[in-house]
Amino acid sequence: MNEGWIPLEGERDQNFRVRLPSGRSAVFKLCHPEEGEDVILCQAEALEHIAAVDADLPVPRLIRTRDGRPLGRMVHEGAAYPVMLLSWLDGEVLGQNTLSPEALHDLGRMLARLGMALRGYVSAAPAARSLAWDTRHAHRLSPFAVRLAEDERELAQDILERHAAATVPAMQRMRSQIIHGDVHPYNVLIGPTGFIGGIIDFGDMVHGPLILDLANAAADFLSAEADPAETIFEMVRGYRSVTPLEEAEADCLIDLIETRLVMTPLIDALKSASGIRPQGYFETFNSRSMPMIRLLRKIGHQRLRGLIRRAAAYPAIPAGPAPADEQSLTRRRRFMGEKLYVFYDPPLHVVKGEGVWLQDAGGRRYLDCYNNVPHVGHCHPYVTEAIARQARTLNTNTRYLTDQSVEYAERLVELSSEGLSSVVFVNSGSEANDLAWRMAKALSGHRGGLAMDFAYHGVSEAMDAFSPSNAPDHWNAPHVRLLPAPCLYRGVFAGDTDGLGERYAALADPLIAELEAEGFGVAAAIVDSAFMTNGILDAPPGYLEGILRRVRKAGGLFIADEVQSGFGRIGASFWGHRHHRIVPDFITIGKPAGNGHPVGAVITRPEILAHFLKTGPFFSTFGGNNVACAAGLAVLDVIRDEDLVENARSVGDYLRVELKQLMSRHSLIGDVRGVGLATGVELVRDRRTREPAASETTRLLNLLRDEGVLIGSEGKHGNVLKIRPPIVFTRENANFAVAALDRALARL
């Protein structure tokens, strides 16, 4: 042998390090002819594909022949041998040395990059070949378990039976592509810094589940000198930083690791039966396989699966069965206070949401006709992906220049009323209303305010004063006056027809006079345009115009609380206040803006914001953060792309027609009203006296829950069914809800 040719390790091929005329080293591979030229050509093509899509990935580069062919040919004693020339990678084979946790994390990243680089490569050869080391077919090695010691035989059979019964069917549903399949310590090079310097030997490529690259490597890098749990954790964490694992992949990983480990002694038995002498490093792998399986079982599959799920960014699976609802209630009382503020009796234990449906812990689905927070549907995929994508990229505050907050502010201004072109971000509707109130006081110089009787505008101290519905029997706010609800069904002018808007608005005059007489003046009036807490009212035309005119005449400003009525819910327009033909001084948003992700904002005129900032800067650490704004932008996209404003109008109109038809069969229904997908059904014991049916309403809500429909109650008397679903609600959903209400009323 020429002294310039240095033999290298190889299981089927003969490999040599050679010196090229340029002085650089290369790897000369004399390939085993029984592999088949298509399999060998696949290796060459795969390496060229990797070089094209990830040029920095440290794998060998193919050196083509002088005439440009990927493979050469050598004839010896009448036999033709395919020949391949590859670039030399500097570094030392890891072998029996161990990697630091940081290097294991790096190895996981490298495996994921390798998978990404190969996923666009297609070849029939890896799918057609039969390879003993292909983990998918590990159960074929079962006949060789008889050659193991008795205790090892039972362990091997247990692993192979589970593999065939559960893991193989699971793998059939997983992501599959051409994979390296054999990244082990003798195929990995370590650079001078102790990190991965290269991955070599593509001779075991197969077309199989992507997760096998990670599972095989994790099994092969376990050693007695390092904590196996930490090894697996760091490799999964590194892999996931590039390529997120699917949940099924994460959950079967420990079983695949065990399968890979048990294959080593079984393949040794196969080779022994065939008279094949194993490779030099094979004995090292073989001697540690069964002890490592026992160590993994000592640690416990449950703990290891939990570590893997954590590394893969999935929540841990509870160790035992889900706690019963009574246990959940006990835990909630212990840690969240004795007074339970929950819907239904008994409370509903929900675990999943999708579109207009919620699912309880027992697997039953419920039509959600109440929640306005998931405005475009529970867990809308476009919104959830926008949140996750942004969270993986950047999430910081508005003291830096970032794109999402500016783009979201621009979109909100485009949708807002004339002149409202300044946006201040906060985290909730409560904060938005609180901030708008502060701005109104700063500009007006006044300290008094107007709100609707039984209104709700938030939980801060300032907004609690404007939210008598929080605690009606204990409400006391000397600087706030409450406007009588402009209710056409049971209000002070109910039954009249002429000029009702102005007549109801005139009820504000003595309240404004009181505030001025007591030295408060009027800083602002705040109104929810859908009058949700008042029972979802059809306010008479001109009412809010009259209130706004009077407030401004008194030197105050008008806050349109659009948390419940905005974002297309009322169907007639994007904002609720436009339904009343007014232009407010502030628009405040919260809940639906992020479809469940905390987002809030005040939209106002530039001069109002400028005056407020004269007193000092305003800053919200989380207000306007990148993820919140990404959620907000996604919600706006969905509303536009799915034409949900029109959907709210058409489905809402249809729903109320169907509900009114129930009135002929159920005298308990006194009134059906609303606009868009905000509908109130008022229940009364007597249509003539209009006596509120409060207790019947409570019972009806639970009966509806039994029918699979979730509806809330509202109004000062607690007798109004509040139907306020996500605005992706369809006519089919409306039919389902109306039929359930019909049955529940019949059972009441």
Major beta-sheet overview: 7 strands, mixed
In round numbers, the mean pLDDT is 93
- The spatial strand order of the largest sheet comes to 15-21-20-19-18-16-17
Number of H/I helices: 23
Backbone shape: elongated
Question: What would you call the structural class?
Answer: alpha+beta
The end-to-end distance, rounded to whole angstroms, is 97 Å
User: Radius of gyration over alpha carbons?
Assistant: 35 Å
Q: Percent helix among the residues?
A: 40-55%
List low-pLDDT spans.
none
**Strand proportion:** 15-25%
Count the beta strands: 27
Protein model, in words:
With 748 residues, the protein is of the alpha+beta class. 40% of the residues lie in helices and 16% in strands. It has 23 helices and 27 strands. The strands form six sheets. It has a seven-stranded mixed sheet with strand order 15-21-20-19-18-16-17, sandwiched between helices. A hairpin with a 5-residue loop joins β1 (6-8) and β2 (14-19). The protein starts with 5 loop residues before the first strand and ends with a helix.
